[in-house]
Records
---
Amino acid sequence: DARVTQTPRHKVTEMGQEVTMRCQPILGHNTVFWYRQTMMQGLELLAYFRNRAPLDDSGMPKDRFSAEMPDATLATLKIQPSEPRDSAVYFCASGSRTRGGQPQHFGDGTRLSIL
Amino acid sequence: QKEVEQNSGPLSVPEGAIASLNCTYSDRGSQSFFWYRQYSGKSPELIMSIYSNGDKEDGRFTAQLNKASQYVSLLIRDSQPSDSATYLCAVWMDSSYKLIFGSGTRLLVRP
């Protein structure tokens, strides 16, 4: 089965450190999404790309978060500097655009803890 | 008003019963609807997609869509303890070009 691959699966670091999360979308998928999930807020869309171009990053705190897609097989989400309130599970999802709405397939997530 | 609303539950049903999960959405123009299942500590897993009014069946799962009422539901027949999870409704919003998730309904199937 094709899967979205995320690394690392877990990350614990101290406040102020840079955090980089990586995602390999399913081969052939041309849209990539970054979500954050917390108990309080549920699933929040942070940013998404189509054909490697950023289409929306309005859900992302711009001062500390950045998302890029340097090639079709890699998407990154960086937090610098990290803060305790960034502790959450970060999911990457990918899809292939065949119509206006598309099912998205999620990776296993990165569980991030900022101390 | 939230864009996608679900009852948080928990919804508790006995094994073998039908579980009915409901979702309402605000964007009248939405055309694409999805149900995801999320086990505790795991990622959301797509279980159903529905695009047209009416019912769509896949095994023990049936998705129902009523665009006039802006309502989508998921029925799980012959519920099993392994169906215990949080079920997320997701609606593609043409207005914002985003997939918006509800907060999820927690389902507990009692043996």
---
Amino acid sequence: EVRLVESGGGLVKPGGSLRLSCAASGFTFSNIWMSWIRQAPGKGLEWVGRIRSKTEGGTTDYAAPVKGRFTISRDDSKHTLYLQMNSLKTEDTAVYYCTTDPWPFDNWGQGTLVTVSS
Amino acid sequence: EIVLTQSPGTLSLSPGERATLSCRASQSVSNYLAWYQQKPGQAPRLLIYDASSRATGIPARFSGSGSGTDFTLIISSLEPEDFAVYYCHQRSSWYTFGQGTKLEIK
């Protein structure tokens, strides 16, 4: 059974940093692209970015609102996906989900809440 | 960026009724469209992909259709557990989501 468990969310001040983790199990993590999706309170879903498998270069893509501030990485030995978030803004407040990628996104974690507030 | 516009914003129906949800893309996405269901406090659940293919374990009362720019999700006979928010999602050009349709009990 595929299982994704996000962690690392919390309260952070504007301009601060936070690193989220997504622990994966139940599939061959190293072979799979992964994406982060976020959802602001009471709002819709927004794709944040993705990372390819190492065999396909391990490269990343980001949505415009987070490009240059967020970095996605992976540790295949630990079956873990990361999202490093720097220069956080109040509009980054959201529940952050990790998902398996390729599309469609049929496996999601439970999400972790990030609140950016002074 | 491809914008997905869902209508209506809110749909009020009774159990047993038929629900028709629409999603329109700002440019063609071919058939690269998916539908998700989300209940409060839960992650989205994949219902339909490639516009009309049901995901594993999804009941037959859910069906999807369309191609290009206009897509429809139909729930043929609403069950109490179907009242939720539904999102469409495309992968033709990067990934974007619609703003959602809330299906509420009338």
